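> agent: user asked for a holo structure of the chain below bound to coenzyme A. Plan: (1) validate sequence alphabet, (2) canonicalize SMILES, (3) run complex prediction with ligand conditioning, (4) return tokens. Step 1... ok. Step 2... ok. Step 3 dispatched.
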Amino acid sequence: MPADLQVVDLRSVEPPLAESLAGLLSSVWPDSSQTFDERVAGLLHDWKSYAGPAQQFPRAFVVLEEGQPIAHAGLVPREVRAPGHAVTVGALGGVCARPDRRGQGLGVAVVQASFALVDEGVFPYVLFQNYRDYQPFYEKLGARVIDNRIYNSLAEDPQANPFWADVAMVYAGGNDWPEGDLDLGGPGY
Ligand SMILES: CC(C)(COP(=O)(O)OP(=O)(O)OC[C@H]1O[C@@H](n2cnc3c(N)ncnc32)[C@H](O)[C@@H]1OP(=O)(O)O)[C@@H](O)C(=O)NCCC(=O)NCCS
């Protein structure tokens, strides 16, 4: 783990860091529906009043270089429903390294830090979506593709898959991943 890998508590992000993180995310995903200002606002406010279990607090793993973020992974709690029971997973998103710093282990560092929360018993699973190209990147770190049908019971079309990328993946450590349909109970991330 690089020395400058930091845990950012999303309940209380300082405005300058929110701006530099939004800058990194907007440069990696320029076509996102979220504008720079919306990203800043989200980072400042979305999790301010989080009232869930303290150890599952919403966070981002960020590698900083001279105060600037060069890699990021967001890991926030998300209650999903498998047949017969609800479970709070770690929802992983926004995994990126600055284009000029790729191939230096930073992506692995922020994802490994996220998956470590499962090994430490904070979350039973880390659940995320991604594109086929990146599947081997996550598989090398112990994640696997899941084939549960995924839906959002709160959506206008509750049968539609709220994830938009090619595959859904999970890091489960030593835990058994449930079979059957999975209700994200909200939009994809
Ligand atoms: C995915 C991403 C974060 C990887 O970051 P990175 O810092 O370059 O990755 P690392 O240097 O830690 O790479 C570690 C390993 O992953 C491999 N890897 C990286 N990108 C890969 C890809 N697209 N396909 C397959 N393997 C990949 C590297 O080859 C390396 O493997 P090796 O050590 O065996 O050679 C980075 O490519 C990125 O920001 N991509 C754009 C954002 C994005 O699409 N993120 C979402 C992914 S779902």
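> agent: step 4 complete. Summary for user: Residues 98 and 175 are 33 Å apart (CA to CA). The first strand starts at residue 5 and ends at 9.
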